Amino acid sequence: MWSIVITIVLIVSASYAQLLVRTHWHDVVIKSRTIPTFQIVTNPLILPSSKIGKKVYQNIKELEADWSRFAGWFPYPRMSVAELYPPNCSSVDKKTSWDFKLLDEQIVSFLEATRGHPSHFSISTQPAWMFKVDKLVDIPQDFKSPVWNYLQGTQLVDDSIQQLADYYGRVAAWYSHGGFVDECGTLQKSNHFYNVPGFEIFNEIETEHQFKVEYYTKVYDKVVAKVKKYLPNAEFIGLSLTDPRKNFDYMSYFLNSSNHDANIPLDWISYHFYSLPDSKSTLAKQMFQQADDFLSYIPIFEKIRSSLSPTTKTTINELGTIFEKPEIGLSDDFWIMSGAQFAYCFAKLSAFGIEAVGMSQMVGFPGQYPSVSMVNWETGVGNSRYYVLKMIIKHVGLKMGAQDVVLVSTEQPCSSVFVQSYLVATKGGEWVKKTLFVNKGEEKQNIKVDGLGDGRFEYVDGSLGPFSDSKTVSVKDSVEVGPYCVGFLVYDVL
Ligand SMILES: *[C@@H]1O[C@H](CO)[C@@H](O)[C@H](O)[C@H]1NC(C)=O
Ligand SMILES: *[C@@H]1O[C@H](CO)[C@@H](O)[C@H](O)[C@H]1NC(C)=O
Q: What residue range is the signal peptide (predicted)?
């Protein structure tokens, strides 16, 4: 009889046992070198004159992200290619088709909104006419009409690669040197004298043009050599792999300096990751399972990189979740689930020492990868993903080296809530204690925090709605984390 009572008491107390976070503040995992950032990709809604354009660039300004990426992507060639047709210098008017109007609208707005923060260009869409193809694809007159097969061919017409290198040299000169002299000897003036801190050589090289890595490496060297003349201080980013898990050989070939010309920098490599859930009932579960699979490869990539080219940095400059089932639609909580996936990946990648992790992408809309959008495409207001990134930048962003951030060993409270504690050095030289919470599940959890006392908890979760800024509440001894909540707990005690 008594043993039954005792058993019941034990079961009852076990099920009410509070979850606990315990941090070992002196046990350093790594001094963070990870920059949280984002990318913005060419489409008609990112023009400053679009119905949401003004709000979009305001959002970018308020993010204060370092090392963001401008991606001049191919579906809108009139917006992403500066010379749409081959020059004809034997025509009477020495005709070239150089036209930067639409590129300028995007790039100038982007550079103004990110002023004071370094960024990188990925003007990845090569003029299609430079490739060996049977027939060029027609370019729609309306720049807003996407053409999904603009990129054709795997080999350049000019075997020496000089034509493509010259194209990128002129693009670089347009933004950094006030203009350039075109193929027919005409001066093309931009009056832009921007400092361009980073230049990426193409996008998703193994899928967009199906470049073999040997050919890509040759092209990289020729293009970098030319662009470097105009951007001597820029850092160059190579590879931009769609899925590095399938392409170890690309990384090991590219990072081997014996495969490059002399004096070609290997400053950065880039690769991408998207969770691709396919069922609405298991969205979050699939997002996190797939993220774990990707994360399990990072030590392998890091081993390749550090053994071949230890000073080369890594930017995972596209990270997100894609759920493209228009017939199902995106529910309100999709945005916070996706934000939680990003926060989780960001913290895990920081522990591996990855240098930059970029949320993909500022603006998507139906027909143009809506599920990766960081804003409401009708109003331009940020969604939960945007506000999650904003919190990450604010709390554990490196702010151009002005803020020291240290990851410390943190005991996980349970399998559904991920936690990571940080020590963040303030300007006054004091170390502030913070803990990131990511609830991967739909159950609300109450979690006791060892040594907390009083604190503030800034969070974004589904209860705030899909397009709402973070909320900060005062807490004592414990925190409550709602479904898919992402939050930073700031301890009042130092
Ligand atoms: C270049 O212009 C000349 C003179 O107008 C013309 O005869 C020739 O066909 C043009 N070449 C091409 C490739 O369009
Ligand atoms: C680097 O490349 C060279 C030339 O292709 C090759 O001989 C060498 O084995 C490679 N090194 C490594 C570590 O793979």
A: 1-17
